[in-house]
Amino acid sequence: MLGPRGECLGLETFFNDLYRRGLKGEGVELIVTDGGAGLLAALPLVYSQVPLQRCWAHKIRNILDKVRKIDQSSVKDSLHRVMNAKHLVGARHAAKRFVEQWNRLCPRAVRCLREDLDELLTFFSFRDPSWRKAIRTTNAIERRFREVRRRTRPMGCSQTEPAWRGSSMRCSPMKNKQQGIATPFLVTQNF
């Protein structure tokens, strides 16, 4: 397992390779990430101009890990009030209430939210509410990866890259259609 420094170096190399091959970040409106330390360190080195959205699902799990079991349901409800606010001002007010309510009992959980609040609220810069919902977590892309793994696992390790790409291209539109959404994710459209 690589540490954050080694992981950052590997990801920086990967992003620089993408950049050299033409993915310069122009037209990329947002990068949504789960918050891995290496990824967070490497992204600004290559794609500093692209806004970052931290995944709410991952952040909520991280925060709940810092809370007593008895308080987890209430803390989760408070976090959902931040995430599901109608607008940015409402989200910031809900975050302030979260801090006031939980700081004494769960200071580590509050610190975890405060550290990344701005990147958790990036999705509010998009006007369309359906886009806001789709981009505030990495769940949509993770569902597609899970489907690709499900389809490729029975094939064994002999699957070729073209076969994997074909499987990926078939999975993503199918899942999008099942969920009744347009495909806003570059990675699921352009192989």
Q: Characterize the biggest β-sheet.
A: 2 strands, parallel
- Bulk shape: globular
Number of extended strands: 2
Summed over residues and divided by their number, the pLDDT gives a mean of: 80
Distance between the amino and carboxyl termini: 28 Å
Low-confidence stretches: 185-191
Percent strand equals under 5%
Helix run count: 10
User: What structural class results from the helix and strand content?
Assistant: mainly alpha
What's the helix-strand series? HEHEHHHHHHHH
Helix content: 55-70%
Tell me the Rg in angstroms: 18 Å
How are the strands ordered across the major sheet? 1-2
Summarize the structure.
This protein is mainly alpha-helical. The chain has helices spanning 4-20, 37-46, 56-64, 69-83, 88-102, 107-120, 129-135, 139-152, 161-179, 186-189, and strands at residues 31-33, 52-54.
Descriptive account of the structure:
- The chain is mainly alpha-helical and 191 residues long.
- It contains 10 helices and 2 strands, in the order αβαβαααααααα.
- The protein has a two-stranded parallel sheet with strand order 1-2.
Task: Itemize the secondary structure elements and their pairings.
Blueprint: H1 4-20, E1 31-33, H2 37-46, E2 52-54, H3 56-64, H4 69-83, H5 88-102, H6 107-120, H7 129-135, H8 139-152, H9 161-179, H10 186-189
Parallel strand pairs: 1-2
Helix pairs in contact: 1-2, 3-6, 4-5, 5-6, 8-9
